[in-house]
Protein 1
Amino acid sequence: MAKIKNLIVGCGFSGVTVARKIAEDFGEKVVVIDAREHIAGNCYDYWDGNRICVHRYGTHIFHTNLKEIWDFVSRFTKWYPYQHKVKGLIDGQLVPIPFNLNALHQLFPESISSRMELCLLEKFGFNKKVSILDLQKVKNKDLNFLAEYIYQKVFLEYTTKQWAMKLDEIDSSVLGRVPVYVSRDDRYFQDKYQGIPLEGYTKLISKILDHPNIDVRLSTPFSKSMEYERLFYTGAIDEFFDYRFGQLPYRSIKLDFIEFPFSRFQDAAVINYPCNYDFTRIGEYKWFLNNQSDKTVVSYEYPESFVLGENERYYPIIKDKNVELYNRYLDLAKDIPNIYFLGRLGDYKYYDIDKAIERVIKVFGKRKK
Ligand SMILES: Cc1cc2nc3c(=O)[nH]c(=O)nc-3n(C[C@H](O)[C@H](O)[C@H](O)COP(=O)(O)OP(=O)(O)OC[C@H]3O[C@@H](n4cnc5c(N)ncnc54)[C@H](O)[C@@H]3O)c2cc1C
């Protein structure tokens, strides 16, 4: 078989952005392979029998402050201007997540909530995002009480379920993803650009791949026998090196999809259950594109450990010893010419979609033809 000029492993956002860049900007042929039977990686979605667009690997909302990334992706889709809101069941009430001033007033009597609000405003200012760890450090009786309440009701059990770790073992970058928000803004993201691709992520990605220089091969796992001039690998780096130093740990998720014979299941696209049940959250898919149907589909998310061959890698577990292990694999990669590890699995990093695309675009900024 002839040598492939550019072989790309993975049809997720990272792999397809590489493919498009090489095909379009460099005018070279590329072959993109994926072990799965579908494109779009973990952003894969499909239209079910009720015309509801379901995200097979869990709810995905595109959001970014990076105009360059928004412009790039917008070449391939129109958008539904969805603004994501998440609620959490706390003390029997559905309150905004991240915890904000509206949640505060909903959960506490007015006399107490107003006092706490003033303390928060004095200490942090309006519209500020504060990590729970910083809130816990404040020396103020009311805020100490509030910090302990939020810690117990919003973070502690959710985090234990999600990561199977104690809060103090979790990397601050992970905790920082859900701040306490001194604001009345109930949205989950404040990015300038947010939305859901009007025809879904799979369609968007199929359009990125739609170029005469791009050849897509599905149900095709990478094999060492493949011959190529350059390899862009968005699969797991430890797998590539046959787990020579051991496996990089991940958390996984079991998603239980249920269809209900009525039109609305819950009050927001995503509802978190920090203190109840074994699942962490329920996503209801018709919210994202406002799909009209007299049925609805939801997914219950049960976090679990990643076990090779049994489930999927979802979240890298960011800890010093795991990052050291990753760096050992990366050192091996340095000795192989023309191989680039990218994406959430190749870089062993949590990336939102925009950051995964940005990472690829940066690599191409540096690389000469
Ligand atoms: C539960 C969850 C929810 C998320 N929600 C959001 C969100 O709301 N907004 C957001 O911006 N981001 C979200 N993300 C992040 C988003 O999923 C990632 O940014 C994105 O999927 C990264 O794309 P990728 O191409 O790097 O990886 P992936 O999408 O995982 O693609 C990698 C591809 O490589 C293939 N592959 C791997 N190994 C091989 C091999 N050996 N041979 C052939 N093919 C192989 C895999 O089959 C896969 O298709 C979420 C992530 C999770 C886990």
Protein 2
Amino acid sequence: MTETMRAVEITKPGAPDVLQLTTRPIPEPGHGQVVIKVAYAGVNRPDALQRAGAYAPPLDASDLPGLEASGEIVALGAGVSEWSVGDKVCALLPGGGYAEYVATPAAHCLPVPDGMGLKEAACLPETFFTVWSNVFTRGGLKAGEIFLVHGGSSGIGTTAIQLAHAFGARVFATAGSDDKCAACLDLGAERAINYRDEDFVEILRAAGGANLILDMVGGDYIPCNIKALADDGRLVQIAFLQGPKVELNFAQMMTRRLTLTGSTLRPQSVAAKSAIAQDLREAVWPLLSSGKVAPVMDSEFPLAEAAAAHARMESSGHIGKIVLKVA
Ligand SMILES: NC(=O)c1ccc[n+]([C@@H]2O[C@H](COP(=O)([O-])OP(=O)(O)OC[C@H]3O[C@@H](n4cnc5c(N)ncnc54)[C@H](OP(=O)(O)O)[C@@H]3O)[C@@H](O)[C@H]2O)c1
């Protein structure tokens, strides 16, 4: 290995052009970690929030952006026995994915699913860990239940639609254009709602109410979500694209026995994320290896053009995942 690597850093909080190529030392694997030579790095909305100064990385994480990557393991830290140098993996990262090398806990790596390329594999970890832990573990989605996901064409949304459909739920999705709605239907949604033309509350109430809603919008959507829930329904909040503050009458939570919850992945413990990885390997990786579920790919940019990748994401013109080619 050479001692330094190319990476993209956030030079200061701001617009996409604050992302600049730089040179950094190649990370060393800590106890229980591996170092991956990165082939591709997935781009996620939290990277854009971090770049804008709205989502600080945990204190012990790399300041470089990038929460997921694929590539080849090139170094093993003490105590790592489950992987070997040369293994091809995709991995959830504490940060640092926009770089030629990255260190991450060995237990946050997963094998590249059979028949899948490294480009597609790089786009799995962040949304699959998030959707699995919020929709199935926290939200307890069951076969036959009505599931509503907002932002259905997002990286998170395209994953949530496919997994909920694969596990037998009835999927409703909202999105901001007819093209995006068509993509949601292709992925297994029984109803896609263009929120610019239609009222998702009316549509869900007419269907009997949502048993589970996965929401990233927040703001005015919060009281609407509560109206759209069936009795005993659950609302899982994973982001607040329209803000976290709203005036809310909690009486319905009590009278209709609703559950309001949420989580964010990044600050969780290594052990908690390892448990999610284990669940995914058992329950979801066979679906990826069989091709029943696959990441929806929007576009690829070279590492040096990370700023253009962020601009594409923030335009919200994309459907599915944006990826950086690193090697
Ligand atoms: N809690 C967690 O652990 C966790 C983990 C990963 C991601 N997230 C969050 O999940 C969300 C999706 O992430 P992603 O990487 O999949 O992002 P993404 O692909 O960029 O999707 C976000 C989508 O949200 C919609 N949107 C954007 N701005 C909006 C606004 N102001 N109001 C309403 N809708 C808006 C857009 O679709 P339309 O055109 O259809 O509006 C956009 O495509 C992000 O908010 C991210 O921060 C949370």
